[in-house]
Design brief:
Number of helices: 22
Radius of gyration: 25 Å
Strand content: 15-25%
CATH superfamily of the largest domain: DNA ligase/mRNA capping enzyme
CATH class of the largest domain: Alpha Beta
Number of domains: 4
CATH topology of the largest domain: D-amino Acid Aminotransferase, Chain A, domain 1
Amino acid sequence: MARTKKVSVAQTNGTLEAFARVADGVAATTKKLEKARLLGAYFHTLADADLVRAARYCAGHQFALNDARTTNVGGGMLRDAISEVTGLDVENLRPRYVRLGDSGEVAEEAFAESGRGASVKPTFTLAEVESLIERLSETRGTKNKREVLVEALRRATPPEAKYLVKLLIGDLRIGLQEGLVEDAVARAFERPLAEVARVNMLVGDIGEAALRARRGDLAGVSMRLFHPIKFMLATAAADTADVARTMPAEFYVEDKFDGIRGQAHVERGRVALYTRTLDEVTHRFPELVAPLKGLPTSAILDGEILPARGAQILPFAELQKRLGRKTVSDELLAEIPVVFVAYDLLYADARVMFDEPLSERRRVLESLIAKADESAAEENVGTLRLSVAKLVRDANDLDAEFDAARARGNEGLMIKDPRSTYKPGKRGREWLKLKRALATLDVVVTAVEVGHGKRRNLLSDYTFAVRRSADDAELLNVGKAYSGLTDAELAELTEWFRAHTLQEFAHGRVRVVEPKIVLEVTFDRVQESKRHKSGYALRFPRILRLRDDKSVEEIDTLDAVRRLADAGGASG
């Protein structure tokens, strides 16, 4: 193992101003190696405690992932605080959000215009940033939180304000992903990237992983439960011929469920459920806690939360009625029961399973589920279930399997290589998905308009966008949809959009909004269009459903739109 350089106290540079300089440098380059070099050089200048903080902040985390605290500070609250400190009214700030597209840059510009760049000196340390974040997590009430924000921002220079806002939103938007921070840590302290990434995954804290890397203490780390682990993802197969080309001679076929991806952590009578957005949702599905407690050992299960009554899978629209609720009433629990269908195993009985082949993970998983509830497992109708995974040798059999899955109320098929290891956060071709024949895209709402007729009091007409690419978060509009959601859903969204408006036109009838609401849309076909910057428009788009389980980072890209256009709008 290579020896690391010693870091003296004299080298420490744990100020927010230094963090801002490095972050600006990272944002200014598109080269991943240069980003990692800049971060690595910066990490070397920090004392241990500041290294932990900086690594977390660079990864976009306010706290370690194993820490469930949140600040609950929204864009509107920050905008109001910026307005109060700078003296610029909210109407002055709104066009800046549209022009700059980044709350931190709006704060920096507003602070500079108000003269704070000359009158205020940089004083914030990373330790004080941590204290502010902790204080906000403990403060209750919008008014009280805003007072804390205003008090802090009054001390800030323009660059400090920029990164305070970014950190409080939890999105630096400087072209960094957690994997790149892991790479920077590995390079800085001359450790294998695989070891740094593994420790981060096991402990749920990139800050601790960075400190262990500095100290050469990456070996022998045990799995800690109750922090979300990124999910392994599947790639869409073009058709059954694509499956035949990709899969080995024998492969698993499962139903592709139309629910919410869920990760269940179970240990010593405690249960936690996480979604693919890494949010804990245990309180929304209380009926799943007792069955999961019945597992004979500590475990982490990967699976799907589905609305079901007995063996019958209910439509996803039923599950949506339970999403977003802070509390779930007894009536709603009875009306829309849910089940957890497990299809993979990440950890069991002190054994980390990521590097085991899927065939072995399935063998252990089947044993666990059977022991948890033998009667329910036998009929596969209990609240805790096991997905049915068939071993198939001929891709020509998939058409019949697809039709059967759809008849059971599911979305299509998952096809998996039995040799595949579990790769958190990765999308490869070891897992493929065959979805509905209808073409669909996951998009984010960028603007809304007041509807017509009975919807004249609702914001019901949505303009939506895709990402430019997986590595470029620029949003490019591709269409507008008017139909597909219920009046109740529209009423709830109208309230949200009004609270998250960036700019208004036509006396409030048209609003540019914060791009946070993800939709799944369908359409007849994709056509080239000069009307949108993307160069494409969806013909007759319709909203299939809200995707509360997906983040903006997971929406489709321009490349997906381009492929659909080249294929005439059809999908596999």
